[in-house]
Design brief:
single chain, Rossmann fold, 7-stranded mixed sheet, about 35% helix
Length: about 525
C-alpha cells in the first residue's frame, strides 16, 4: 500500500493523490491547476485506464476539473462523492468544458492565419457529459467498500455544499492502516452549511494548508454589514452591485438577503428586487434548493423542514439569457444585482459595472478576495476611473468591501481540526498551500501538538505499510518559457471571455451613434496594430 503525491504539493490548486493497494488504484481528487503555477507536477505513474475509482472531496474545479480529461485519457472507473457534489459537478464540469472548447476555437482562428497546426481543447462537452455518467453518489457518514482491501467514509468538511473529508481504511496482508484526506476544511459559522465535522483517529493525515499563515476577523457581523450597505444605497435611489462567485458565495449572499427581508431589516424598501445574473449561478442555486438537508446547518435544516426555501424570497429574479441580463439595466427601480465573475475580469458583471460605476447613488460591494491585477482589486484600491469594453468609466459609486466571507478555515481553524485527533496520526502531510503557509502552519502544529509535519513535493511516494518514504522528490520549478502548462488555463479563459465581451460590444454599438461606432472601430484597429495583427 502506497501513496503518491501528484498535485497541490507546495501549491494551492490541482489537487490529486494516488492511493494503491494490491487490488485497487484510487485517485483522491483530480483537479485542474489554476492561476500562478510554480512547480511542475510529476506525471501519474500509471495509465488513467488503470484507475478504478476517483474519490472526490468536493465540486470546485481545482479538485474536480481534470476528471473529463482523465476520461479522455482512458479513465472509465467510478467517481464516488456526495450527492451534492455530484449535482454541482454535473453543471460545473459542463461549464468548464464549454470554456475549453471556446479557448481552442479562438486559438485555432488565430493560428490558422499564422499557418499553425490546429489545437484540441483540453476536453470537450462530450467528454464531460460522458464521464458524468460515472458518478456514484453516497451519503455522509456511510461506509462504502471499494474492494476487499479498501473502504471509505465521507465526513462533512464544511467548505462547500457537499464537501467532505475522506476516511479511508486499508487492510492488506494483515496490515491495517487508516488514512484521512482533509479536503478543503471549511470556515465556521458560514450561512447554509454545517461547520466542519472533526475526525478522532488516523494513522496518516493528508491536510490542506491554504490559510496556514492567515487569520479571519471573527468580530464581523455580515448581516448587519450587508443591511447597512443595502439600506443606504436604496435610500439614495441607487443599485447595489455585488460581484460574486457563482457557486457558494452567491448562495450565501442570497441567504443573508432572505434574512434581511424576513426580519424586515430594510425600511422603506421592503420589496426591493434582487437579480442573480449568471447562468451558472442560477443552475447552482437550483442545486442548493433541492433536498440536501444532510449538508445544511441546524438553522437552515429547520427552515427546509418547514417548507421554507432558505435562499428564496419575494422579489428574487434569476436571469439566464443575454436579453434578461440587458433588461436589468433598463429598469430604473433601485435593486440588488449579483453577477459573475467574482473578480470582475469577465462575465456579465462588467456590463453592470459599466452602467452603474459612474452613478454616485450606487454601491459596488466586494464579498470575496480580489487578486492583484484584477479589475476588482483596482476598484478596491480606489481607482478614479477604469476602462470597461474600451470605454473609460468614472468611478463615482461607493466601493465597499465586506469582511472575510472565506469558505476556508484560517490558521486557527486548521489547528483546531488537527487537534481534534485523539489517536494518531503517525505521520502528517501538509498539501494544498504555498511555501509560506505550509512553513508557518507546520511550525505551529509542532509547537501545539508535537506532531512533525512533512511537506512532500510532487512525485514523492510514501509506503504506508512501512511508514517511510519510498521516494522523496525534489522541487521542479516551471521554466518561464513553459510556464503556461496544458492544465493552467485561467489566463486563456479570461482572454476567451474578453473576446466574447468584445463581440457583444460590437453588436450593441450598431444601435448607437455613428461617432461612437467610429471611436470603437479606431480603438479596435489600434489594439490590432499593437499586436501586429493584420
Amino acid at each position: 500500500m502506497k501513496l503518491t503525491f501528484i498535485g497541490a504539493d507546495h501549491e494551492v490548486t490541482g489537487s490529486q493523490h494516488l492511493l494503491e493497494t494490491k487490488d485497487i488504484k484510487v485517485l483522491v481528487d483530480c483537479g485542474l491547476e489554476q492561476g500562478r503555477n510554480v512547480y511542475e507536477n510529476a506525471p501519474l505513474p500509471v495509465p488513467y485506464s488503470e484507475i478504478d475509482y476517483i474519490l472526490l472531496t468536493h465540486a470546485h474545479i481545482d479538485h474536480a476539473g481534470l476528471i473529463p480529461w482523465a476520461y479522455k485519457q482512458g479513465f472509465n472507473g467510478t467517481i464516488v462523492t456526495t450527492n451534492a457534489s455530484m449535482d454541482l459537478d454535473s453543471i460545473m464540469l459542463l461549464d468548464s468544458a464549454h470554456i475549453q472548447e471556446q479557448e481552442a476555437e479562438w486559438q485555432n482562428r488565430k493560428g490558422q492565419r499564422a499557418g499553425k497546426a490546429a489545437v484540441e481543447p483540453l476536453y470537450t462537452v462530450q467528454d464531460a457529459e460522458a464521464v458524468i455518467k460515472n458518478f456514484s453518489p453516497v451519503p455522509y457518514d456511510h461506509v462504502v467498500e471499494l474492494s476487499d482491501t479498501v473502504k471509505v467514509r465521507f465526513t462533512d468538511a464544511g467548505h462547500l455544499l457537499g464537501s467532505a473529508s475522506l476516511e479511508i481504511w486499508i487492510n492488506e496482508d494483515g496490515v491495517k492502516k487508516k488514512i484521512v484526506f482533509s479536503g478543503d476544511i471549511g470556515n465556521k459559522d458560514k450561512p447554509l452549511i454545517r461547520d466542519p465535522q472533526y475526525i478522532a483517529e488516523a494513522d496518516y493525515v493528508v491536510m490542506e494548508s491554504t490559510y496556514g499563515n492567515r487569520h479571519h476577523d471573527k468580530s464581523l457581523d455580515h448581516l448587519e454589514e450587508l443591511r447597512r450597505i443595502i439600506q443606504e444605497t436604496l435610500d439614495r435611489g441607487g443599485n447595489v452591485i455585488i460581484p460574486a462567485f457563482a457557486v457558494g458565495r452567491t448562495q450565501e449572499l442570497l441567504y443573508l438577503i432572505r434574512c434581511l427581508k424576513q426580519q424586515n431589516l430594510i425600511s422603506g424598501h421592503e420589496n426591493f428586487p434582487v437579480y442573480v445574473d449568471s447562468p451558472l449561478a442560477v443552475q447552482a442555486t437550483s442545486v442548493f434548493k433541492e433536498n440536501l438537508t444532510e449538508c445544511y446547518d441546524a438553522e437552515t435544516r429547520e427552515l427546509v423542514q418547514k417548507g421554507i426555501n432558505p435562499i428564496g424570497f419575494k422579489g428574487l429574479h434569476l436571469s439566464v439569457s443575454a436579453e434578461d441580463s440587458k433588461a436589468i439595466n433598463f429598469d430604473m427601480e433601485p435593486k440588488v444585482i449579483l453577477a459573475a465573475s467574482g473578480m470582475c475580469d469577465a462575465g456579465r458583471i462588467r456590463h453592470h459595472l459599466k452602467h452603474n460605476l459612474w452613478r454616485r447613488e450606487c454601491t459596488v460591494v466586494f464579498a470575496g478576495f480580489q487578486a492583484a491585477g484584477t479589475l476588482g482589486r483596482t476598484l478596491q484600491e480606489g481607482a478614479e476611473s477604469v476602462k470597461i469594453f474600451g470605454e473609460e468609466i468614472d468611478v463615482k459609486a461607493q466601493i465597499e468591501t465586506m469582511g472575510s466571507m472565506s469558505s476556508h478555515a484560517d490558521q486557527q481553524g486548521l489547528l483546531e481540526w488537527i487537534q481534534a485527533f485523539r489517536e494518531g496520526p503517525e505521520q502528517l502531510f501538509l498539501v494544498h498551500g504555498d511555501d509560506e503557509s505550509m512553513t508557518e502552519l507546520s511550525a505551529l502544529i509542532k509547537k501545539e501538538t508535537g506532531l512533525e509535519a512533512s511537506c512532500p513535493y510532487s512525485g514523492s511516494v510514501y509506503d504506508l505499510a512501512e511508514g517511510r518514504y519510498e521516494f522523496e522528490a525534489e522541487p521542479h520549478f516551471i521554466k518561464k518559457e513553459t510556464a503556461i502548462s496544458v492544465r493552467n488555463t485561467t489566463v486563456q479563459q479570461e482572454l476567451t471571455l474578453a473576446l466574447a465581451e468584445l463581440t457583444e460590444l460590437v453588436s450593441e454599438s450598431r444601435e448607437g451613434a455613428n461617432a461612437d461606432m467610429r471611436r470603437l472601430t479606431k480603438d479596435i484597429r489600434s489594439l490590432l496594430a499593437k499586436w501586429n495583427v493584420k
